[in-house]
């Protein structure tokens, strides 16, 4: 149940942050879009920034995994080609990937949010 609730929160938050940005997205919007109460959302995340940070870190870990998959001794040109094809494939099958990229970009220009990854 806890994982299902967290997934609802993440899915709703990713979409709202990607569409409206961090500053103009409210906790209430995320809760409504996720089909949960505001109180339940606050049981998982104390603040909107904490939720955003969690999503950014999750996206960063996903990128790390994708990059590690390509560390196989290929030439730089082959690595760039493989990585680009993987990104395009992910974008075609699921626009949530694009939304993750958008919130990662937002985090890179906002103060006080994590945007450094060990890639």
From TrEMBL:
Q: Per the record's keyword annotation, is DNA-binding included, yes or no?
A: yes
Q: Which residues bind DNA?
A: 26-45
Q: Which domain of life is it from?
A: Bacteria
Per UniProt, residues of the HTH tetR-type domain are 3-63
What UniProt keywords apply to this chain's record, in alphabetical order? Answer: DNA-binding, Repressor
> What does UniProt give as the signal peptide span?
none
What's the protein name?
Answer: TetR/AcrR family transcriptional regulator
Report the source organism.
Siminovitchia sediminis
The taxonomic lineage of its organism, from the top, reads: Bacteria, Bacillati, Bacillota, Bacilli, Bacillales
